[in-house]
Amino acid sequence: MAKVTNPLLSGTASGKLGDLMVFDKRGHVRQYVSPANPKTTNQMLVRNSMGDVQRSLKLLGTTLRAELRSQFGYHWNSMIVGELTVNNRAALLSYVAEYAAFSAPQKADWVTADGSTPVEIDKGAILYACASAVFDMASRMAFTVTLSQPAAANAATVGAEWTDNI
After folding, report:
1. What are the residue ranges of helices labelled H in the chain?
2. What gap in Å lies between CA 60 and CA 72, rounded to an integer?
3. What pTM was estimated for this model as a whole?
């Protein structure tokens, strides 16, 4: 239900007026459009990838989490998700391709170090992608974080630093 202050269209209003119009907080009026959720294959692919990134970020330990918050600001997790999903997931797919080039024992080490339960991206690959994004962002912005540069042979080190189990 719309909340109107003063006569309609000459004062302020917020909310929805029937199924005709919507008043937003900025004072703009637009036509009401019923929300759609087509659940296309590409949409679900992106949603699941973003979910995988978020599940991996939830495993961050208190030390690294505090560093990221102090260096990147309050929306540090949105920055990381944005870094990995911008341009149709270009960075994420690049990190996953790097991970795919690892040997089988190296992949097994990353799978062991990864505590998340991904849906779209292979276990191990999502930890490598998230840790690589964090390390690369910190390097580009000249920030200091206690995270080793992810590489094929240091899964145990990065996994321990990721969860503060050092």
Report:
1. 41-57, 62-72, 76-100, 104-113, 125-140, 155-163
2. 15
3. 0.79
